[in-house]
From TrEMBL, chain A:
Protein's recorded name: ATP-binding cassette domain-containing protein
Domain ABC transporter: residue ranges: 6-232
CDD domains from the UniProt entry: ABC_MJ0796_LolCDE_FtsE (cd03255)
Lineage: Bacteria, Pseudomonadati, Pseudomonadota, Alphaproteobacteria, Rhodobacterales
Pfam families from the UniProt entry: ABC_tran
TrEMBL record, chain B:
Organism of this sequence: Tropicimonas omnivorans
Predominant localisation class: membrane
Classification via Pfam families: FtsX (PF02687)
Signal peptide positions on this chain: none
Keywords: Cell membrane, Membrane, Transmembrane, Transmembrane helix
Protein known as: FtsX-like permease family protein
Length: 232, 842
């Protein structure tokens, strides 16, 4: 078996809340191969998004190990994690999370600039062209529709040519047609850059486009298979 | 009926407590507190002046004359009415100690008193010695007491002797308190007190010498002072008397306090305007947070009027709390500081609770709160239920017409009440215009800053400078606090900048430029018999480059063209006695602007040459008749010429110069200015004072130092006022930084998600704050400089140049204040985990 791009070993995650400590992930192990599209499904509160955040180094596991591209994310400090993300990861959120004070072009150029890319704005413009937003480069997020904002978010995630693309319900806030267009773009980006894609979704039609699907329930892996049905 | 519903909604909404409104409350409270405190201090001082009016004056009423003592008829009139009468003579002179090279001299304001002095209050001497004992002297030598600072300047100790004119005095005590000191007004030299009788034979009160005689009376408590004043003026209309009474014992101080407090209240109103920006931002931020609530209420059937009223009531209740806090602070601060203030003030003050200044401050606070919250509140009405789905507020570029009208009415009411309540209505109107103009300029500047910042983010200059581009993008982007920070911090810094620039220019004019063009010293009271000897000494000195001399009398302009002068014009020239000179021919360097000088030997009806600028201001023309009262006699002269008189170089300058025959027979002395090398000054002063002990020589450097000292105190008071404005600006700044924390946390989370390390996020946050502050500082520098230029050019009629030091300090200070406020709120964006922030927004 080739080295996995992402691997999680007995990962636990507990978060403090007003009601006391809540166990979100309960000793979970999983992996994703290079170029693979992995779907994460499960009911609300099952830990899908938390798992994705841990894969992206945005959340720290309470225990267990997380490796990405052979590097131990759990051993890295916050700044090392940020550097790792800028070099190897692109993340897309359900609520887009664009910076409202930046135009589309600036939002896309930011990770490239942070990575010291020589032609950050040229590359950003190319990425916006690729998602069909060449005419909206100078618009602020508030001046764009939800679908357009998500396309900017996709361009931002894809611009640094990441090895790993993480997407957290990227169509959750969009209508069916727009969501479908966004997914086409997302899979197109994956194909173009040969990235590993990990996708949290509730949409059955999306899981059908995944190579493998993991179903979570109550912080544990409840099933795994080539399709959602197989993972049941 | 929407009112009860609105009230219920308002009550429920306020249950969340006041924590979210601290900026609102602090801004309003600070503005109201500053105005209330200034007003309370003013009332306290005025109350003290009122209570101590008789002591400050030295009697219940005072008649005074210049150049002469009262004649028997005048004294008889006073004795008929007074319970007691005291005669005081007041003049400038030189106190001298030692002989020859070792002699030390100092300018002093001498007061010669009789046994009845003081009619009210008491002169306290160090050591508790009675004044009468001290002035009695030792043996044959008369006694004197003086201000400790003067004794120190002369190196005198109690028991030492010194000279006034040709008289020798023994220093018998040092003055701790002099009841009528403040009432005597501004003096260039510290006080020396002697018996009037001991001044005889000193050569200091010769005819023509400049002195004031003052006659203080005690009067029965039920005396109608107004009627008595009218009777005195009618009885001695032509004799040049001046009248003062206990109703205004220290008119100079009362006027100064009134003008100063009027000015400080206006500075306080600038503070209220700055606070208004904070209040407006706070209400905007609050309503932004409430958009969903409002949309929900509307979807449940609340109409726009109910919504407006509900939030108007909430803001109204908060405004009442803020105003109440401000009044409490403004009333309490002077009371708490009273022990300190009373010690430092040279005048009595009754600090207490005064309703009028508090009511005034409350009125300004309420009007400002209404003015600055109306527009944001009008947005509440405009929120549509669709905001629930779209998550955005519908922003109108302008509110509805009724809100515009109400805004204009409120602004008018605020400016109108400031003008009506201020003793300086014109100043109040100009100040209001200044604040409004500055706000407009700052609003334009805020828009300009955003455009420039936007341009910068797109410029190739910033490519690769990621954090700087991010900062510029944030300053120029939508939302954010750019406008609030530039308006509030900018206005606060503008006031400080204007004060700094005016102060620098005034100081530069007085301390640097004036000594270059001014004479080394003025010499007063040169007797006609001394003038030749004096001139031969000074003109023969190689260190002296120029000597000007002129005969001098003093007189009051009583009539213009046969009408009382005060009815014809309101001008400083008419407010007291002025110097009058005479000259056969136009003196050197005289430029006539119109008319002709009288022919040599002219002895017809009196003619006068009048100062051109002042004459024009008073509306005088050639041929007008000016009546001047000199030594109780009236001379009416025709204006036959106007001439340029330059008072700015501190040379000899007379408003009026008459033909010599007109003033023939009037006793007078000569005045002289000496332009000399600094090295020659000491010897000159020594020789002149030695040869003519009655002469007073005033070193211009000493006078400048004294004026600078007074100016320093005034500037310090104004700077404190401007500081209060800046403090409000900083509260707004901190409030804006606090309000922006959520946005900064989100930005930091996203930036870190896309790969920014903490150092980069911190640099971004710091640059963002510093850019905002520097922009506010630059704009403030511009607004402050324009204001300072206007004050120097139009009010003070002086040159203006930009002072680089204060200017840089303003820009740097703005950047630093904003940077510190930004950094104070940076730790949360830096410390939170991206996942938690982003998850919360999902």
């Amino acid at each position: 078996m080739p080295d996995p791009v992402l691997s999680l070993d007995t990962v636990r995650l507990s978060l403090r809340s007003n009601a006391g400590e809540v166990e979100i992930l309960r000793g979970l192990s999983a992996h994703a191969e290079r170029g693979e599209t992995l779907g994460l499904i499960g009911p609300s509160g099952s830990g899908k998004s938390s798992l994705l955040m841990i894969m992206g180094g945005l959340e720290r596991a309470t225990s267990g190990r997380v490796h990405a591209l052979g590097q131990d994310l759990t051993a890295m400090n916050e700044d090392a994690l940020a550097r790792f993300r800028r070099a190897h990861m692109g993340i897309v959120f359900q609520s887009f999370h664009l910076i409202p004070t930046m135009t589309a072009l600036e939002n896309v150029a930011t990770p490239l600039e942070l990575a010291g890319h020589k032609d950050a704005f040229g590359r950003a413009a190319e990425e916006l062209d690729a998602v069909g937003l060449d005419k909206r480069k100078d618009h602020y997020p508030a001046q764009m529709s939800g679908g357009e904002q998500q396309r900017v978010a996709l361009a931002r995630a894809a611009a640094p040519r990441p090895d790993i693309l993480l997407a957290d319900e990227p169509t959750g806030n969009l209508d069916g047609a727009t969501g479908e267009a966004i997914m086409d773009l997302l899979f197109g980006l994956r194909d173009r850059h040969g990235a590993t894609l990990v996708l949290v979704t509730h949409a059955p039609e999306l899981t059908r486009r995944c190579d493998r699907v993991i179903r979570l329930e109550d912080g544990r892996i409840a099933g795994e298979g080539a399709t959602a049905e197989a993972a049941e | 009926m929407s009112l009860p519903n609105a009230a219920r909604i308002a009550r429920r909404e306020l249950r969340g407590g006041l924590r979210a409104f601290w900026v609102f409350l602090a801004c309003l409270a600070l503005g109201v507190a500053a105005i209330a405190a200034v007003g309370t201090v003013r009332e306290g001082i005025e109350g003290g002046l009122d209570r101590e009016g008789a002591a400050l004056l030295g009697g219940d009423a005072e008649l005074s004359f210049t150049y002469r003592f009262a004649n028997a008829e005048e004294i008889g009139w006073m004795l008929e009415r007074a319970g007691a009468l005291s005669e005081v003579v007041d003049f400038r002179s030189m106190a001298v100690t030692g002989e020859g090279e070792a002699a030390r001299r100092a300018l002093t304001q001498v007061k010669g008193v009789d046994d009845a002095y003081p009619l009210y209050g008491e002169v306290r001497l160090q050591g508790g010695q009675p004044l009468g004992d001290a002035l009695a002297g030792r043996g044959a030598r008369p006694g004197a007491v003086m201000a400790p600072v003067l004794a120190a300047r002369l190196g005198l100790e109690t028991g030492d002797t010194f000279r006034l004119g040709t008289g020798n005095f023994v220093l018998a005590g040092l003055i701790e308190a002099e009841p009528d000191d403040a009432g005597d007004g501004f003096g260039l030299g510290p006080r020396t007190l002697v018996r009037r009788i001991d001044l005889q034979g000193t050569g200091l009160l010769e005819p023509g010498t400049l002195f004031d005689s003052k006659y203080r009376m005690t009067l029965p408590p039920d005396t109608d002072l107004e009627a008595l004043e009218a009777a005195a003026r009618a009885r001695f209309a032509d004799e040049g008397l001046r009248w003062r009474d206990r109703r205004n014992g220290a008119p100079g101080i009362a006027e100064f306090v009134e003008q100063m407090s009027a000015f400080l209240v206006l500075v306080g109103m600038a503070g209220l305007a700055v606070g208004g920006i904070g209040v407006s931002s706070a209400v905007n931020a609050y309503l932004d947070r409430k958009t969903e609530v409002i949309a929900t209420l509307k979807s449940l059937g609340a109409d726009g009027r109910t919504i407006f009223l509900a939030y108007f009531m909430q803001i109204g209740a908060l405004a009442l709390i803020g105003i109440g806090m401000g009044l409490a602070i403004g009333a309490a601060a002077p009371l708490l500081a009273a022990p300190l203030l009373e010690d430092r003030l040279p005048i009595p003050a009754d600090f207490g609770l005064y309703p009028q200044p508090l009511a005034e401050a409350a009125l300004y606070g309420a009007l400002a709160a209404a003015l600055f919250t109306l527009w944001p509140l009008s947005r509440a009405e405009a929120v549509r239920p669709a905001a629930l789905f779209r998550g955005s507020v519908e922003r109108r570029s302008l509110p509805r017409a009724r809100y515009l009208v109400a805004t204009l009415a409120l602004a008018g009411a605020l400016v109108g009440s400031a003008a009506i309540l201020s003793p300086e209505p014109i100043l109040a109107l100009y100040a209001a215009l200044g604040v409004a103009g500055s706000l407009a300029l700052l609003a334009l500047a805020a828009a300009g800053t955003r455009i420039v910042a936007r341009r910068l983010t797109r410029s190739r200059l910033l490519r690769g400078r990621t954090t700087l581009r991010l900062a510029a993008g944030s300053v120029g982007g939508p939302g954010g606090e750019t406008a609030a920070v530039i308006l509030s911090l900018g206005l606060g810094l503008s006031v400080l900048s204007a004060v700094g620039q005016v102060d620098h220019n005034l100081r530069s004019a007085i301390e640097t430029e004036l000594p270059d063009v001014a004479p080394a010293f003025f010499v007063l009271d040169i007797q006609p018999s001394q003038i030749d000897g004096y001139l031969s000494r000074v003109e023969g000195d190689p260190g002296v480059s120029r000597v000007d001399t002129a005969p001098m009398l003093r007189g009051v302009i009583s009539q213009i063209n046969g009408r009382p002068a005060s009815e014809v014009a309101d001008h400083w020239v008419l407010s007291g006695d002025r110097g009058v000179t005479y000259s056969e021919a136009p003196p050197a360097r005289t430029t006539l602007t119109s008319g002709t000088w009288w022919p040599e030997g002219y002895d017809g009806p009196p003619q006068v040459s009048f100062a051109a600028e002042e004459g024009a201001e008073m509306g005088l023309a050639l041929g007008d008749a000016i009546t001047v009262n000199i030594l109780g006699r009236e001379i009416t002269a025709e204006i036959t010429s106007f001439r340029e008189v330059d008072f700015s170089s501190a040379g000899i300058g007379f408003i009026m110069s008459m033909n010599p025959a007109a003033l023939e027979g009037y006793p007078h002395s000569w005045i002289s200015t000496v332009y000399a090398e600094p090295d020659a000054e000491a010897a000159l002063l020594r020789d002149i004072s030695g040869a003519y002990p009655n002469i007073t020589a005033i070193g211009v450097r000493d006078a400048i130092a004294r004026v600078s000292e007074v100016l320093g105190s005034v500037v310090a008071a104004i700077t404190s006022g401007a500081g209060a404005t800046l403090l409000t600006g900083i509260v707004v700044l901190i409030g804006a930084a606090a309000a922006g924390v959520r946005a900064r946390i989100f930005e930091a989370a996203v930036l870190r998600t896309v790969g920014a390390v903490r150092g980069q996020v911190l640099t971004y946050l710091a640059l963002r704050s510093a850019l905002l502050g520097a922009a506010a500082g630059l704009v403030a520098l511009l607004a402050g400089t324009i204001s300072a230029w206007a004050v120097m050019t139009f009010v003070l009629d002086a040159d203006f140049s930009i002072a680089a030091g204060p200017a840089l300090a303003i820009v740097f200070g703005g950047a630093l204040a904003s940077l510190l406020a930004g950094l104070a709120f940076a730790w949360r964006p830096l410390s939170v985990r991206p996942a938690g922030v982003l998850r919360a927004r999902e």
